[in-house]
């Protein structure tokens, strides 16, 4: 059974940084594309970033380009999201997701497995 567990969320001031982690219990983690999505209260879930199986192919939402970096460590079965220059509008529950594919999906329905999420709060 696939499990994804996020960590690293918390309260940070605007302009600050956080690094989220997502630990996967997957037999062949390196075969999965991994994504990060977020959902703020009253808003729809939105794509944040995704990374291919090797780590060489990444995709970002326009709203986070240049501020967020997604990476992965296949040996540790973990994907990371480094978030810098955080803004109040980045405040949301951040979830990681996994999809057994060679492409790098940017839409939520493409992903098969989801974590429970970690809260990121940004104070202005």
Low-confidence stretches: none
Q: Multimeric state of these chains?
A: single chain
Beta strands, count: 11
Structural class: mainly beta
Which percent range fits the helix content? under 10%
Topology order in helix (H) and strand (E) letters: EEEEEEEEEEE
Rounded to the nearest angstrom, the radius of gyration is 13 Å
Instruction: Report the major sheet.
Output: 7 strands, mixed
Query: So what's the overall shape?
Result: globular
- How many H/I helices? 0
Mean pLDDT: 96
Strand proportion, as a percent range, falls in over 45%
Distance N to C terminus: 40 Å
Describe this structure in words.
With 124 residues, this protein is mostly beta strands. 0% of the residues lie in helices and 51% in strands. The protein contains no helices and 11 strands. The strands form 2 sheets. Strands 2, 4, 5, 6, 9, 10 and 11 form a 7-stranded mixed β-sheet that branches. Strands 1-3-8-7 form a 4-stranded antiparallel β-sheet, with no helix packed on it. A hairpin with a 4-residue loop joins strand 7 and strand 8. 34% of the residues are buried. The mean pLDDT is 96.
């Amino acid at each position: 059974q696939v499990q994804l567990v996020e960590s690293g969320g918390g309260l940070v001031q605007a302009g600050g940084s956080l690094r989220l982690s997502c630990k996967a219990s997957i037999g062949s983690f390196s075969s999965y594309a991994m994504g990060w999505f977020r959902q703020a209260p009253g808003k729809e879930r939105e794509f944040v970033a995704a990374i291919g199986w090797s780590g060489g192919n990444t995709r970002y939402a326009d709203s986070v380009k240049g501020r967020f970096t997604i990476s992965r460590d296949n040996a540790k079965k973990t994907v990371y999201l480094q978030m810098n220059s955080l803004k109040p509008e980045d405040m949301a529950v951040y979830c990681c997701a996994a999809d057994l594919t060679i492409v790098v999906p940017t839409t939520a329905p493409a992903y098969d497995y989801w974590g429970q999420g970690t809260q990121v709060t940004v104070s202005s």
